């Protein structure tokens, strides 16, 4: 046990043990100040759990969620490792442990790959891929000490299939998130820690608002004809998505209470259709080249 583990062990209070008996869990949610993250917090609180709600502006998080004995709001910019470590210390000081981590904070840099700047790509990955890694790295010593925990990372349909324009940066972050989560599952399972990837379809969140979506600047004339309609399409989708984030939040609470939560939860009928099409495409590609693919071993 290293020094950090020792400190966390000391903070594992008797009140926390009582909550285990009562089936009350301690949730830790990133990006909780608005949108889907706020819905996750509200659903967990309504189910009788306690929540550490985090966001870059803790005052805004408090304003959105109000006050509750079972709610702790903490400042956390997921791109800053120090913020993650401080937020976890605050969570353990208040509640004694962390049972469910929800990696929800994300951003959306939309545009053609060539027109997105390297800095925009860096920011996309920093928030939606490295950010969840930073927070999970801070939480894992707590969960290892407990020999229990559940890490839920919010991906996207674009993490399963991304064969459409304008999402190359976003899809790269989500494909990376999923690869990391699948490998992480094998690493932490011996400690009693469970992982779940969530693939939402189109839900009526704030991802497509001006605060969350950043568009690439037009810079290459070859894309001019297609760019305008795509920008208008994405802007028009805001507020028109069919998925209800409050229902997804309640579904997440249901999953977190299961004895054997799924490693992957595909959320929404449209997300299921995307996944089924991806499976069909993979099968078709396998069959189209099976003879060549299976002829590559040494003679």
For the structure shown, list the relevant keywords.
299 residues; alpha/beta; Rossmann fold; 7-stranded parallel β-sheet; two-stranded parallel sheet; 11 helices
Q: Based on CA inertia axes, which overall geometry fits?
A: globular
Question: Would you tell me which CATH topology applies?
Answer: Rossmann fold
> By helix and strand content, what is the structural category?
alpha/beta
Task: Write the CATH architecture name.
Answer: 3-Layer(aba) Sandwich
The rounded distance between the terminal residues' Cα atoms is: 50 Å
CATH superfamily: NAD(P)-binding Rossmann-like Domain
The tally of structural domains comes to 1
Rounded average pLDDT:
89
Oligomer: single chain
**Percentage of β-strand residues:** 5-15%
Low-confidence stretches: 5-18
Helix content: 40-55%
Query: What characterizes the major β-sheet?
Result: 7 strands, parallel
CATH class: Alpha Beta
Sheet with the most strands: spatial strand order: 3-2-1-4-6-7-9
Number of helices: 11
Description:
The chain is α/β, with parallel strands linked by helices. The chain has a single domain (3-293), classed as Rossmann fold (3-Layer(aba) Sandwich). The protein is 51% helix and 14% strand. The strands form two sheets. Strands 3-2-1-4-6-7-9 form a seven-stranded parallel β-sheet, sandwiched between helices. Helix 7 links the parallel strand 6 (149-154) and strand 7 (193-200). The longest helix has 29 residues, at 118-146. The chain is globular and about 55 Å long. The N and C termini lie far apart (50 Å). Residues 5-18 have low confidence and may be disordered.
